[in-house]
Write a structure and sequence with these properties.
The strands form four sheets. Strands 2-1-5-3-4 form a five-stranded mixed sheet, with helices on both faces. It has a four-stranded parallel sheet with strand order 8-7-6-9, with helices on one face. It has a three-stranded antiparallel sheet with strand order 10-11-14. The chain has 15 helices and 14 strands. Helices cover 33% and strands 11% of the residues. The protein is of the alpha/beta class. Among the domains are: 73 residues, Ubiquitin-like (UB roll); 113 residues, no CATH class; 122 residues, FAD/NAD(P)-binding domain, CATH 3.50.50. Strand 12 and strand 13 form a beta hairpin. Bound molecules: iron/sulfur cluster (3 copies) and FE2/S2 (inorganic) cluster (FES).
Length: 450
Protein backbone atom coordinates (compact mmCIF):
# COMPACT_ATOMS: atom_id res chain seq x y z
CA UNK A 1 0.00 0.00 0.00
CA UNK A 2 1.18 3.58 -0.68
CA UNK A 3 0.15 6.88 0.84
CA UNK A 4 1.53 10.37 0.26
CA UNK A 5 3.18 12.47 2.94
CA UNK A 6 3.85 16.10 2.00
CA UNK A 7 3.31 15.09 -1.67
CA UNK A 8 5.86 12.28 -1.54
CA UNK A 9 4.66 8.73 -2.14
CA UNK A 10 5.74 6.38 0.64
CA UNK A 11 5.22 2.61 1.03
CA UNK A 12 3.36 1.55 4.19
CA UNK A 13 2.26 -1.71 5.79
CA UNK A 14 -1.19 -2.39 7.16
CA UNK A 15 -1.42 -1.74 10.92
CA UNK A 16 1.23 0.98 10.98
CA UNK A 17 0.42 4.31 12.60
CA UNK A 18 0.99 7.55 10.73
CA UNK A 19 3.55 8.76 13.26
CA UNK A 20 5.67 5.63 12.79
CA UNK A 21 5.60 5.99 9.02
CA UNK A 22 6.24 9.74 9.03
CA UNK A 23 9.22 9.50 11.36
CA UNK A 24 10.64 6.52 9.49
CA UNK A 25 10.49 8.56 6.28
CA UNK A 26 12.29 11.49 7.92
CA UNK A 27 9.30 13.80 8.53
CA UNK A 28 9.36 15.45 11.92
CA UNK A 29 6.16 15.10 13.97
CA UNK A 30 6.01 16.20 17.61
CA UNK A 31 4.48 13.98 20.30
CA UNK A 32 3.93 14.15 24.03
CA UNK A 33 1.55 11.38 25.08
CA UNK A 34 3.07 8.87 22.62
CA UNK A 35 6.35 7.02 23.12
CA UNK A 36 7.60 4.25 20.86
CA UNK A 37 7.26 0.79 22.44
CA UNK A 38 5.09 2.05 25.31
CA UNK A 39 1.38 1.78 26.04
CA UNK A 40 -0.39 5.03 25.23
CA UNK A 41 -3.74 6.65 24.46
CA UNK A 42 -4.08 9.80 22.39
CA UNK A 43 -4.78 12.84 24.50
CA UNK A 44 -2.33 15.71 23.92
CA UNK A 45 -3.13 16.39 20.23
CA UNK A 46 0.30 17.83 19.45
CA UNK A 47 0.98 15.06 16.94
CA UNK A 48 -1.91 16.02 14.64
CA UNK A 49 -1.55 15.90 10.85
CA UNK A 50 -4.07 16.61 8.07
CA UNK A 51 -5.48 14.00 5.74
CA UNK A 52 -6.17 16.13 2.65
CA UNK A 53 -8.17 13.29 1.05
CA UNK A 54 -10.90 13.77 3.69
CA UNK A 55 -10.05 17.21 5.10
CA UNK A 56 -9.70 15.74 8.61
CA UNK A 57 -7.14 16.72 11.24
CA UNK A 58 -6.17 13.48 12.99
CA UNK A 59 -3.79 12.37 15.76
CA UNK A 60 -0.95 10.62 13.96
CA UNK A 61 0.01 8.55 17.01
CA UNK A 62 -3.18 6.51 16.83
CA UNK A 63 -4.45 6.93 13.23
CA UNK A 64 -3.61 3.86 11.13
CA UNK A 65 -2.52 4.14 7.52
CA UNK A 66 -5.14 3.48 4.84
CA UNK A 67 -5.13 3.49 1.04
CA UNK A 68 -5.40 6.91 -0.57
CA UNK A 69 -4.29 8.99 2.42
CA UNK A 70 -2.72 12.35 1.48
CA UNK A 71 -1.02 13.53 4.62
CA UNK A 72 0.30 16.99 5.44
CA UNK A 73 2.59 17.18 8.47
CA UNK A 74 3.71 20.79 8.47
CA UNK A 75 1.07 23.08 6.91
CA UNK A 76 -0.03 26.31 8.57
CA UNK A 77 -3.32 24.70 9.61
CA UNK A 78 -1.54 21.74 11.22
CA UNK A 79 0.93 23.99 13.03
CA UNK A 80 -1.90 26.20 14.30
CA UNK A 81 -3.78 23.19 15.71
CA UNK A 82 -0.63 21.96 17.45
CA UNK A 83 -0.01 25.44 18.85
CA UNK A 84 -3.53 25.52 20.33
CA UNK A 85 -2.97 22.08 21.89
CA UNK A 86 0.29 23.22 23.48
CA UNK A 87 -1.31 26.40 24.77
CA UNK A 88 -4.13 24.44 26.36
CA UNK A 89 -1.64 22.16 28.09
CA UNK A 90 0.32 25.16 29.32
CA UNK A 91 -2.79 26.86 30.69
CA UNK A 92 -2.84 24.08 33.29
CA UNK A 93 0.84 24.30 34.14
CA UNK A 94 1.87 25.96 37.38
CA UNK A 95 5.63 25.81 37.19
CA UNK A 96 8.81 27.70 36.35
CA UNK A 97 11.14 26.34 33.68
CA UNK A 98 13.85 28.73 34.84
CA UNK A 99 13.82 30.19 38.35
CA UNK A 100 12.73 33.86 38.41
CA UNK A 101 16.13 34.85 39.87
CA UNK A 102 17.89 33.54 36.77
CA UNK A 103 15.41 35.18 34.40
CA UNK A 104 15.95 38.50 36.19
CA UNK A 105 19.76 38.28 36.24
CA UNK A 106 21.19 40.38 33.40
CA UNK A 107 23.96 37.77 33.08
CA UNK A 108 21.49 34.86 33.16
CA UNK A 109 23.34 33.36 36.14
CA UNK A 110 21.91 30.04 37.36
CA UNK A 111 21.43 31.02 41.00
CA UNK A 112 19.51 27.85 41.91
CA UNK A 113 22.35 25.64 40.64
CA UNK A 114 24.81 27.60 42.79
CA UNK A 115 22.54 27.29 45.83
CA UNK A 116 22.19 23.53 45.35
CA UNK A 117 25.99 23.13 45.35
CA UNK A 118 26.40 25.52 48.28
CA UNK A 119 23.79 23.65 50.34
CA UNK A 120 25.60 20.36 49.68
CA UNK A 121 28.87 22.02 50.71
CA UNK A 122 30.32 21.48 47.23
CA UNK A 123 31.98 24.87 47.45
CA UNK A 124 34.62 24.52 44.76
CA UNK A 125 32.09 23.52 42.11
CA UNK A 126 29.80 26.35 43.24
CA UNK A 127 32.65 28.83 42.90
CA UNK A 128 33.59 27.55 39.47
CA UNK A 129 30.00 27.97 38.30
CA UNK A 130 29.97 31.45 39.79
CA UNK A 131 33.23 32.50 38.14
CA UNK A 132 32.31 30.99 34.77
CA UNK A 133 29.12 33.05 34.68
CA UNK A 134 30.06 36.24 36.49
CA UNK A 135 33.91 36.33 36.34
CA UNK A 136 34.14 38.95 39.12
CA UNK A 137 31.24 37.66 41.27
CA UNK A 138 32.06 39.30 44.60
CA UNK A 139 32.72 42.69 42.97
CA UNK A 140 29.40 42.49 41.15
CA UNK A 141 27.65 41.95 44.49
CA UNK A 142 28.48 45.58 45.29
CA UNK A 143 27.75 47.22 41.95
CA UNK A 144 24.77 45.22 40.66
CA UNK A 145 21.28 46.23 41.80
CA UNK A 146 20.54 42.51 42.41
CA UNK A 147 17.23 42.14 40.52
CA UNK A 148 17.54 38.42 41.39
CA UNK A 149 16.82 39.12 45.06
CA UNK A 150 13.90 41.41 44.20
CA UNK A 151 12.04 38.64 42.35
CA UNK A 152 13.11 35.75 44.59
CA UNK A 153 10.08 33.55 45.30
CA UNK A 154 11.34 33.02 48.84
CA UNK A 155 10.34 36.64 49.46
CA UNK A 156 6.69 35.49 49.49
CA UNK A 157 7.52 33.26 52.45
CA UNK A 158 9.19 35.95 54.53
CA UNK A 159 12.54 36.97 53.12
CA UNK A 160 14.37 36.54 49.84
CA UNK A 161 17.40 34.29 49.63
CA UNK A 162 20.50 36.38 50.44
CA UNK A 163 22.00 35.56 47.05
CA UNK A 164 24.79 38.13 47.23
CA UNK A 165 25.84 36.93 50.70
CA UNK A 166 26.10 33.35 49.41
CA UNK A 167 28.30 34.53 46.55
CA UNK A 168 30.58 36.57 48.82
CA UNK A 169 30.96 33.62 51.18
CA UNK A 170 31.85 31.31 48.31
CA UNK A 171 34.48 33.72 46.98
CA UNK A 172 36.03 34.19 50.42
CA UNK A 173 36.09 30.41 51.03
CA UNK A 174 38.13 30.01 47.88
CA UNK A 175 40.60 32.81 48.62
CA UNK A 176 43.21 30.34 49.74
CA UNK A 177 42.64 27.98 46.84
CA UNK A 178 45.33 27.79 44.20
CA UNK A 179 44.04 28.83 40.80
CA UNK A 180 44.76 26.49 37.93
CA UNK A 181 46.35 28.05 34.84
CA UNK A 182 44.70 26.76 31.67
CA UNK A 183 47.23 25.30 29.21
CA UNK A 184 48.32 27.75 26.51
CA UNK A 185 47.32 27.26 22.87
CA UNK A 186 50.14 29.64 21.85
CA UNK A 187 47.81 32.23 20.31
CA UNK A 188 48.04 35.81 21.63
CA UNK A 189 44.97 38.00 21.79
CA UNK A 190 44.28 41.42 23.28
CA UNK A 191 41.29 42.80 25.12
CA UNK A 192 40.86 46.56 25.27
CA UNK A 193 39.11 47.81 28.41
CA UNK A 194 39.47 46.55 31.98
CA UNK A 195 35.73 46.88 32.53
CA UNK A 196 33.27 44.04 33.36
CA UNK A 197 32.87 43.15 29.66
CA UNK A 198 36.62 43.21 29.00
CA UNK A 199 37.48 41.16 32.10
CA UNK A 200 34.84 38.63 31.17
CA UNK A 201 36.14 38.37 27.60
CA UNK A 202 39.68 37.96 28.94
CA UNK A 203 38.60 35.22 31.37
CA UNK A 204 36.75 33.18 28.75
CA UNK A 205 39.52 33.53 26.17
CA UNK A 206 42.10 32.48 28.73
CA UNK A 207 39.98 29.44 29.62
CA UNK A 208 40.13 28.49 25.94
CA UNK A 209 43.92 28.59 26.15
CA UNK A 210 44.65 32.00 24.58
CA UNK A 211 47.51 34.16 25.85
CA UNK A 212 45.50 37.21 26.89
CA UNK A 213 46.65 40.78 27.52
CA UNK A 214 44.17 43.32 28.84
CA UNK A 215 45.03 46.85 27.73
CA UNK A 216 43.63 49.91 29.41
CA UNK A 217 44.78 53.51 29.19
CA UNK A 218 44.02 54.18 32.86
CA UNK A 219 46.78 53.65 35.35
CA UNK A 220 44.53 51.99 37.91
CA UNK A 221 43.41 48.86 36.13
CA UNK A 222 39.74 48.93 36.98
CA UNK A 223 39.15 52.67 37.42
CA UNK A 224 37.03 54.36 36.27
CA UNK A 225 35.02 51.36 35.01
CA UNK A 226 34.30 49.92 38.44
CA UNK A 227 33.61 52.55 41.13
CA UNK A 228 36.28 51.81 43.73
CA UNK A 229 34.35 53.64 46.45
CA UNK A 230 31.50 51.12 46.14
CA UNK A 231 33.65 48.01 46.25
CA UNK A 232 35.90 47.10 49.21
CA UNK A 233 39.51 47.23 48.03
CA UNK A 234 40.29 43.69 49.15
CA UNK A 235 37.29 42.28 47.26
CA UNK A 236 38.41 43.88 44.02
CA UNK A 237 42.06 43.01 44.44
CA UNK A 238 41.23 39.38 45.32
CA UNK A 239 39.33 39.00 42.07
CA UNK A 240 41.95 40.76 39.95
CA UNK A 241 44.63 38.55 41.54
CA UNK A 242 42.56 35.49 40.59
CA UNK A 243 42.50 36.66 36.96
CA UNK A 244 46.26 37.29 37.02
CA UNK A 245 46.83 33.87 38.58
CA UNK A 246 45.06 32.38 35.56
CA UNK A 247 47.77 33.95 33.41
CA UNK A 248 45.97 37.08 32.18
CA UNK A 249 48.39 40.02 31.73
CA UNK A 250 47.32 43.61 32.37
CA UNK A 251 49.02 46.56 30.65
CA UNK A 252 48.31 50.25 31.04
CA UNK A 253 48.64 51.76 27.60
CA UNK A 254 47.01 54.63 25.77
CA UNK A 255 48.03 53.01 22.48
CA UNK A 256 45.81 50.67 20.53
CA UNK A 257 47.33 47.23 19.93
CA UNK A 258 49.09 46.67 16.63
CA UNK A 259 47.44 43.98 14.48
CA UNK A 260 50.66 42.02 14.01
CA UNK A 261 51.16 41.76 17.78
CA UNK A 262 47.94 39.80 18.34
CA UNK A 263 45.95 37.28 16.32
CA UNK A 264 42.71 38.85 17.46
CA UNK A 265 41.35 41.76 19.47
CA UNK A 266 38.23 42.26 21.56
CA UNK A 267 37.45 45.96 21.90
CA UNK A 268 35.27 46.15 25.01
CA UNK A 269 34.71 49.85 24.44
CA UNK A 270 32.13 52.03 22.79
CA UNK A 271 33.36 53.54 19.50
CA UNK A 272 35.39 50.56 18.35
CA UNK A 273 38.20 52.07 16.21
CA UNK A 274 38.72 49.02 13.98
CA UNK A 275 35.89 47.08 12.27
CA UNK A 276 38.12 43.94 12.30
CA UNK A 277 37.94 43.83 16.09
CA UNK A 278 35.16 42.16 18.03
CA UNK A 279 33.00 44.84 19.67
CA UNK A 280 30.02 44.89 22.10
CA UNK A 281 26.57 44.43 20.59
CA UNK A 282 24.82 46.13 23.50
CA UNK A 283 24.62 49.68 24.79
CA UNK A 284 23.70 48.40 28.27
CA UNK A 285 25.65 49.76 31.22
CA UNK A 286 24.49 47.09 33.67
CA UNK A 287 27.67 45.39 34.95
CA UNK A 288 26.15 41.89 34.92
CA UNK A 289 24.83 42.36 31.37
CA UNK A 290 28.30 43.50 30.33
CA UNK A 291 29.80 40.34 31.81
CA UNK A 292 27.50 38.27 29.58
CA UNK A 293 28.46 40.45 26.62
CA UNK A 294 32.14 39.80 27.40
CA UNK A 295 31.52 36.08 27.19
CA UNK A 296 29.70 36.52 23.89
CA UNK A 297 32.60 38.55 22.47
CA UNK A 298 35.11 35.92 23.63
CA UNK A 299 33.05 33.23 21.89
CA UNK A 300 32.83 35.36 18.75
CA UNK A 301 36.60 35.80 18.60
CA UNK A 302 37.17 32.14 19.41
CA UNK A 303 34.76 31.17 16.61
CA UNK A 304 36.64 33.46 14.19
CA UNK A 305 39.99 31.96 15.15
CA UNK A 306 38.73 28.36 15.21
CA UNK A 307 35.86 28.17 12.72
CA UNK A 308 34.54 24.80 13.98
CA UNK A 309 33.29 26.58 17.13
CA UNK A 310 29.93 28.30 17.46
CA UNK A 311 29.01 31.15 19.83
CA UNK A 312 26.31 30.05 22.32
CA UNK A 313 26.26 32.74 25.03
CA UNK A 314 22.73 33.88 25.84
CA UNK A 315 21.08 31.05 23.83
CA UNK A 316 18.99 29.92 26.84
CA UNK A 317 17.19 33.25 26.80
CA UNK A 318 15.53 32.17 23.55
CA UNK A 319 13.83 29.15 25.14
CA UNK A 320 10.16 29.15 26.15
CA UNK A 321 9.78 29.86 29.84
CA UNK A 322 6.77 28.76 31.84
CA UNK A 323 6.13 31.04 34.83
CA UNK A 324 3.37 31.82 37.31
CA UNK A 325 2.57 34.72 39.61
CA UNK A 326 2.59 34.65 43.38
CA UNK A 327 2.12 31.74 45.76
CA UNK A 328 -1.35 31.00 47.11
CA UNK A 329 -1.87 30.65 50.86
CA UNK A 330 -1.97 26.85 50.65
CA UNK A 331 1.27 26.84 48.64
CA UNK A 332 2.91 28.99 51.29
CA UNK A 333 1.95 26.49 53.98
CA UNK A 334 3.21 23.52 51.96
CA UNK A 335 6.47 25.21 51.05
CA UNK A 336 7.15 26.33 54.61
CA UNK A 337 6.77 22.70 55.76
CA UNK A 338 8.94 21.38 52.87
CA UNK A 339 11.51 24.02 53.72
CA UNK A 340 11.68 22.97 57.36
CA UNK A 341 12.13 19.37 56.28
CA UNK A 342 14.85 20.27 53.78
CA UNK A 343 16.65 22.62 56.17
CA UNK A 344 19.09 23.92 53.55
CA UNK A 345 21.39 26.75 54.57
CA UNK A 346 20.64 29.03 51.63
CA UNK A 347 16.86 28.62 52.20
CA UNK A 348 16.47 28.42 48.42
CA UNK A 349 13.32 26.74 47.10
CA UNK A 350 15.14 25.52 43.95
CA UNK A 351 12.35 26.93 41.79
CA UNK A 352 13.73 25.87 38.41
CA UNK A 353 12.62 22.65 36.75
CA UNK A 354 14.85 19.57 36.95
CA UNK A 355 13.95 18.72 33.35
CA UNK A 356 14.34 22.17 31.83
CA UNK A 357 16.82 20.83 29.28
CA UNK A 358 15.09 17.55 28.35
CA UNK A 359 11.42 18.58 28.69
CA UNK A 360 9.51 17.96 25.45
CA UNK A 361 6.73 20.37 26.38
CA UNK A 362 9.26 23.19 26.69
CA UNK A 363 11.03 22.17 23.50
CA UNK A 364 7.81 22.19 21.44
CA UNK A 365 6.57 25.42 23.05
CA UNK A 366 9.85 26.97 21.90
CA UNK A 367 9.62 25.45 18.41
CA UNK A 368 6.04 26.67 17.99
CA UNK A 369 6.94 30.19 19.10
CA UNK A 370 4.74 30.24 22.21
CA UNK A 371 5.52 33.13 24.53
CA UNK A 372 2.77 32.56 27.08
CA UNK A 373 -0.53 30.75 26.90
CA UNK A 374 -3.44 32.73 25.50
CA UNK A 375 -5.69 30.91 27.99
CA UNK A 376 -5.88 32.04 31.60
CA UNK A 377 -3.83 29.90 33.96
CA UNK A 378 -6.25 27.57 35.70
CA UNK A 379 -4.23 24.92 37.52
CA UNK A 380 -5.68 23.54 40.74
CA UNK A 381 -2.31 22.01 41.65
CA UNK A 382 0.15 23.52 44.08
CA UNK A 383 3.45 24.78 42.63
CA UNK A 384 6.64 23.11 43.85
CA UNK A 385 4.72 20.47 45.85
CA UNK A 386 6.75 17.29 45.45
CA UNK A 387 6.01 13.73 46.37
CA UNK A 388 8.65 10.99 46.67
CA UNK A 389 7.69 8.48 43.96
CA UNK A 390 10.01 5.58 44.81
CA UNK A 391 13.27 4.44 43.19
CA UNK A 392 14.73 7.94 43.66
CA UNK A 393 11.96 9.62 41.65
CA UNK A 394 10.00 12.77 42.44
CA UNK A 395 6.46 13.50 41.25
CA UNK A 396 5.31 17.10 40.82
CA UNK A 397 1.65 17.26 39.93
CA UNK A 398 1.69 20.92 38.84
CA UNK A 399 3.91 19.93 35.88
CA UNK A 400 1.84 16.93 34.83
CA UNK A 401 0.04 17.17 31.48
CA UNK A 402 -2.06 14.07 32.26
CA UNK A 403 -0.75 12.26 29.23
CA UNK A 404 -1.19 8.96 31.07
CA UNK A 405 2.13 7.40 30.03
CA UNK A 406 2.99 6.70 33.68
CA UNK A 407 -0.50 5.30 34.29
CA UNK A 408 -0.58 2.90 31.33
CA UNK A 409 3.01 1.79 31.85
CA UNK A 410 2.96 1.03 35.57
CA UNK A 411 1.11 -1.80 37.16
CA UNK A 412 -1.13 -0.43 39.94
CA UNK A 413 1.17 2.57 40.32
CA UNK A 414 0.01 5.93 38.97
CA UNK A 415 -3.70 6.40 38.47
CA UNK A 416 -6.23 8.94 37.19
CA UNK A 417 -8.28 10.72 39.84
CA UNK A 418 -11.54 12.65 39.27
CA UNK A 419 -13.00 13.50 35.87
CA UNK A 420 -13.31 16.48 33.52
CA UNK A 421 -11.40 19.69 34.29
CA UNK A 422 -10.43 18.53 37.78
CA UNK A 423 -8.96 15.25 36.57
CA UNK A 424 -5.48 14.61 37.96
CA UNK A 425 -2.81 11.96 37.85
CA UNK A 426 -1.95 10.71 41.31
CA UNK A 427 0.32 8.20 43.02
CA UNK A 428 -1.39 6.76 46.11
CA UNK A 429 1.09 6.23 48.96
CA UNK A 430 0.34 2.50 49.00
CA UNK A 431 1.28 2.25 45.28
CA UNK A 432 4.72 3.86 45.49
CA UNK A 433 6.36 0.42 45.52
CA UNK A 434 4.75 -0.43 42.16
CA UNK A 435 6.58 2.14 40.02
CA UNK A 436 9.91 1.76 38.25
CA UNK A 437 12.38 4.52 37.49
CA UNK A 438 12.15 4.15 33.70
CA UNK A 439 8.94 6.20 34.06
CA UNK A 440 11.04 9.32 34.66
CA UNK A 441 12.43 8.99 31.10
CA UNK A 442 9.01 8.18 29.69
CA UNK A 443 7.42 11.28 31.25
CA UNK A 444 7.59 14.05 28.62
CA UNK A 445 7.71 16.86 31.23
CA UNK A 446 9.35 17.65 34.55
CA UNK A 447 6.47 16.05 36.45
CA UNK A 448 8.50 12.88 37.01
CA UNK A 449 12.23 13.23 37.56
CA UNK A 450 15.03 11.25 39.10
S1 LIG B 1 7.85 20.62 32.91
FE1 LIG B 1 8.77 21.52 31.09
S2 LIG B 1 7.49 23.29 30.61
FE2 LIG B 1 7.06 22.65 32.70
S3 LIG B 1 8.38 23.89 34.01
FE3 LIG B 1 9.47 21.98 33.56
S4 LIG B 1 10.72 22.46 31.75
FE4 LIG B 1 9.15 24.02 31.89
S1 LIG C 1 14.05 30.63 46.01
FE1 LIG C 1 16.03 30.14 45.07
S2 LIG C 1 15.57 29.51 42.96
FE2 LIG C 1 13.74 30.51 43.79
S3 LIG C 1 13.89 32.62 43.11
FE3 LIG C 1 14.84 32.53 45.15
S4 LIG C 1 17.03 32.13 44.85
FE4 LIG C 1 15.93 31.70 42.92
S1 LIG D 1 3.48 12.34 35.39
FE1 LIG D 1 2.58 10.79 34.06
S2 LIG D 1 0.72 11.67 33.23
FE2 LIG D 1 1.96 13.32 34.07
S3 LIG D 1 3.12 14.10 32.34
FE3 LIG D 1 4.39 12.58 33.36
S4 LIG D 1 3.95 10.65 32.32
FE4 LIG D 1 2.35 12.10 31.75
S1 LIG E 1 -2.21 12.65 20.79
FE1 LIG E 1 -0.58 11.89 19.65
S2 LIG E 1 1.19 12.29 20.79
FE2 LIG E 1 -0.44 12.93 22.03
Amino acid sequence: MNITINNREVPVAEGETLIEVARREGFSVPSLCYAANAQHRSSCMVCVVKNCATGQIIPSCSALVSEGMQIETDSEEVRLTRTLSLELLLSDHRADCEAPCRVACPAGFDVAAMNRLYDRERYEEALELLRDSLVIPATLCYICAAPCEKVCRRGDLGSAVAIREVKKELVSKAAAKKIRQPASNGVSVAVIGANPAGLSAAYHLRKQGYEVTVLDKFSSILAPHIPAEQVPADTLSLEVEALKAMGIAFTCSAENPQPDEYRGVVAAVHNNPDPQWVAPATKSKQPARLVLEGRRMAEQLHAALSPDKKATAGQDAKMFNSAYSRFSDSEKRILAAQQLERGNRSACLYCDCDKKVACKLRRYATEYGIKSSRYAKSSICEALKRQAAGEGMWFEQAKCIKCGLCVYNSNNGFTFKNRGFVMQVALPEESVGNVTKNLADLCPTGALTL
